[in-house]
Amino acid sequence: MKRGINVAIQRLPGYYRYFDKLHSMEIQGVSSAALSKKIGISPSLVRKDICQFGGFGQTAYGYNVKEVRAKLGHILGVDNLRCAVMIGTGCMGHALLRYVRFDAAGFIVVAAEKVSGQTGREISGIPVLNVSELDRVIQIHRPDIAILTPSDIPVQTMARQLAKMGIRGFWNFSGEELALDEPDCFVENVDLVESLLQLSYRIAPGGEAIK
Amino acid sequence: MKRGINVAIQRLPGYYRYFDKLHSMEIQGVSSAALSKKIGISPSLVRKDICQFGGFGQTAYGYNVKEVRAKLGHILGVDNLRCAVMIGTGCMGHALLRYVRFDAAGFIVVAAEKVSGQTGREISGIPVLNVSELDRVIQIHRPDIAILTPSDIPVQTMARQLAKMGIRGFWNFSGEELALDEPDCFVENVDLVESLLQLSYRIAPGGEAIK
DNA sequence: TAGATTGTTAATCGATTAACAATC
DNA sequence: TAGATTGTTAATCGATTAACAATC
């Protein structure tokens, strides 16, 4: 599943966001040295990464912000409008809908919940449908990704079912680690407890604080 | 800031959570081979990691779940009750309070918000205080970490101020990358947009789907 | 031209894997 | 004892850095 480019790709969203920021600040050009200072990656590696994504630098000038932003965005797929279906509309779901700029990442969202699902219900302007109509929702909207928020349906089961309906990306907030065998499917597990434990470790006596 | 043990530590919370799960399932022992299958890390590396954390395996037997869980938990600091102060009580804050098992990670939480802060207000059982009383709140509760949720105060400013008051860990959900120079402080940036973009990349044509 | 900065190669560094002796 | 499984060393693999020729 991995090879070559690999680790650079984990840095790709970071580069994109920074170029996007520069773009919104109306800065036109940037060098690997300047970039390096801002994002904490060595100039060598910045050059190597960006070169690998397509080599859009200009000798003696650096990187054209507008151009590189567009190219990186294209690689990430943000210029390609897709649909995401949110499964579950608990408080985590609500928070994500408010908090994440889905549009900036190229997604429009529909949600499905188990309980209510009265016709026409909306959260933060996105339509909420009943989970029993999932088949129909998916047929209509053809989502590429599912956002799995905590619910009483086991994620594993849910995800397999969704994969069969053609969903390929799973953004998993359930807290249960999700692994799928389906060849063309990708899972992004967001594990906040692990993130918190990482921080806990570092501030613990004997943790990273002691060099 | 880094050296030696390093990369193993990023896997530590994952090991801990899995041992915790085994423990709650009342499983008593596990081998590196069995662990490997479940968490997708090679048996060699599992052994190397756990050995590095303290070498609590037993030849010809494997790992004693209860014991290793306790030791890893100790390294992570979960057996050490600390306080976390949440800055901002918007919908992301609410969601985190409901969703994250802070107690299991060894934290009790207090929150501070800008607006209301009427005496005695609570969210999910945790006390909510006014941000203007932050000094007092911190003097009383002596939190080790701050949870930064989106708010109108720039994180950088907020974090520096909190660092001066003795807070050493910053769990940053603001969406703004936070970097601190303070030597003894640690930042864990949770960047959901980057996580979503990673997934976006993988399902994009030309992304990881193409081997 | 002189100066700046990329793309790229070679050197270094670090992390993972394979193999096996030690041991229960 | 025979079998299982760790801890640890050496070998491999991959990622980062340093250096510099090419070029605008």
Topology:
The structure is a homodimer of 211-residue chains.
Chain A lengths: L6 H18 L4 E2 L1 H8 L3 H11 L3 E2 L3 E3 H12 L5 E6 L3 H9 L7 E7 L8 E2 L2 E5 L3 H8 L3 E4 L6 H10 L4 E4 L13 E4 L2 H12 L8
Parallel strand pairs in A: 4-5, 4-8, 5-7, 8-9, 9-10
Antiparallel strand pairs in A: 1-3, 2-3, 6-7
Helix pairs in contact in A: 1-4, 2-3
Chain A binds a DNA duplex (24 and 24 nucleotides) through helix 3 and strand 2.
Structure description:
The structure is a homodimer of 211-residue chains. Chain A is an alpha/beta fold and 211 residues long. Chain A has helices at residues 7-24, 32-39, 43-53, 65-76, 91-99, 134-141, 155-164, 192-203, and strands at 29-30, 57-58, 62-64, 82-87, 107-113, 122-123, 126-130, 145-148, 169-172, 186-189. In chain A, helix 1 crosses helix 4 (65-76) and helix 2 (32-39) packs across helix 3 (43-53). The radius of gyration of chain A is 20 Å and the shape is globular. The two termini of chain A are 36 Å apart. The interface between A and B is large, with 64 and 64 residues. Chain A binds a DNA duplex (24 and 24 nucleotides) through helix 3 and strand 2.
Short account of what is shown:
Chain A is α/β, with parallel strands linked by helices. Chain A has helices at residues 7-24, 32-39, 43-53, 65-76, 91-99, 134-141, 155-164, 192-203; strands spanning 29-30, 57-58, 62-64, 82-87, 107-113, 122-123, 126-130, 145-148, 169-172, 186-189.
